[in-house]
Amino acid sequence: MAYVLQVDFKMDGPFGDEMAAAFSDLAKSINEEEGFLWKIWTEDPEAGEAGGIYLFETRASAEKYLDMHSKRLAGFGIPEVNAKIFAVNSVLTEMTRGPVSIEIGTQI
User: Name one Pfam family in it (predicted).
Assistant: First the structure.
């Protein structure tokens, strides 16, 4: 079963193309995390918020990443992180064209 990690936090920027340039190395490093499948980056410049929706192979890998990422964000001066971990219902997600198939790691 796959697990979604939903993370958001207050951030003053950068956003948009500046965010993409500033966090490019970070994005590449996330690909190397244990159990990581994909991430959707989220941002709301008007509200001063950013975050992401991640997919992990296991709950344990999502929890491990969240612990590490929360510490990293604290080092960036972001002490408060909102996060939730959800199990993915693959059958219904596939019916609604979600990027998860019944088999873990196989994307449609």
Answer: ydhR
Q: Which two tokens stand for residue 58?
A: 């296991």
Type of residue found at 59 = R
Tokens of 2: 């796959």
Q: Is the peptide bond before 14 cis (omega within 30 degrees of 0)?
A: yes
Query: For residues 3 and 88, is the Cβ–Cβ distance under 8 A?
Result: yes
- Going by the DSSP 8-state scheme, the letter that residue 38 receives in this structure is E
- Burial of 85: CB neighbours in 10 Å, binned 0-12, 13-18, 19+: middle
Name the residue with tokens 């994307």: 107
Q: What is the pTM of this model?
A: 0.87
| Tokens 């990422």, located at residue | 69
> Domain 3-95: which topology?
Alpha-Beta Plaits (3.30.70)
pLDDT digits (tens, 9 = 90+) for 7-35: 999 999 999 999 999 999 999 999 999 99
Given a cut of 90, whether residue 1 has pLDDT beyond it is: no
pLDDT at residue 100 tops 80: no
